[in-house]
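Session log. Operator J.P. requested a structure for one protein chain; no other inputs attached. Running the standard single-chain path with token output.
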Amino acid sequence: MKRKSLVALATLLSTGVFAQQEPIQFSAKGIVALSDADMSASTLVDGNLYKSRTSRDALTVIKFPLDRSGQNMSTAPISNSSALYDKAAVVTPNGRFAFVLEGRGPLGDSLTALKGGVKDLPAAARMFIVDLAPAKPSAKVVNVGSLPTAVTINPQGNTLAVASGESGKELRLVEFDNTGTPKRVITAPSPVPGARITDLVWSPAGDFIAYVIEDTQEVGVMKYSLDQTKKPNIVPHGKPIKVGGLPATGRFSPDGKFFIVSDIKKAANAQGAGKGELFVVQFSTEDTPGEHKVVSQTAGGESAEAMAVSPDGSMVIVANSGQSYQPFNNAGAGKSSLSVYSLDKEGKLTLANEYPFEGILPQSIEFDKSGNAIAVAVSEYLDYGDRTGGIEFWKVSKGDKPALEKMPGRISLTRGCHTVRVY
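Structure written below.
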């Protein structure tokens, strides 16, 4: 009788009667995640690092389908900085290489606090070229100018644009070969003379690069082209326009028609940043540029920097850090949310739903290839001891009023997770 019962159970399992979906459903070859272990999120407020002597900055490669044993995950000790939010890395379309800006250098174990805030973090000028193919990712290092702030990759996957703080050379175009090695580097000044570029985004067609400049509260585009010798050329295209008080992150719609910008108004601080805004910009891309224009704007959440646009261009999802980064004794600590907006053909954003969740300083969002799920980078949680960060996953429901449903599973990573890239 016992044997028959076991046989019957095996039959039920094999036929799927008791079969359950995995707790994470995500359509992708893999995810590359960055973790900055040097500082806690609350360092932004009180300067205390709460460093772990066992944790180091890491790049993690997660391949799908997932495996509970972790056999499909590998890590490499790649120095990186959460001060760059999710502007620190890109992955080639084929998933072979990741390019990671260090941004700020690592801290020694003896240091327990920063007196002058993030500015006390060591300046850096390195970019890591990480080969993701081996079982253990390997990296080469190149110089990309002091205090690099953002990197973007063209749709063809063979050229980078890198922003740095080097005067007169704020922009670099880096062409690389099929081994990931740079073969030509061309420098150019900032499109706004002397101003520091804080975000760069290549257009879906590859003919323009949008830029964001926090200090002057402006966004604009540069025209990218190749001359007869295949040498790249980049020139400002039209005049930049003002958008809000502290423009942070920009994303193109998939058709390149709109550029959505998050305006966080204020940086993270002890009093909180207050509500932000979202701006939808339409760039003039004619050969003779006209004026760029803001086609719509709408209220946003607090510290709403990270965002993603769905592959079909119908929705925008924004991560609101709120005051989750505050010290643990603050009422807002650990409380974040996701806002879901519909985006119509005229560029109007409409808030559809908002979802609170427990997690500190979500700084990066990516859709999967199907557009039916998102991955959200979470820096850490309201945990004590040897804390971790993670990637959380949400199912996406499309329609006139798009919605999310949190998946029960998550991936635990080194604390300080601030960037996810899907390939």
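Operator note: The chain has a mean pLDDT of 94.
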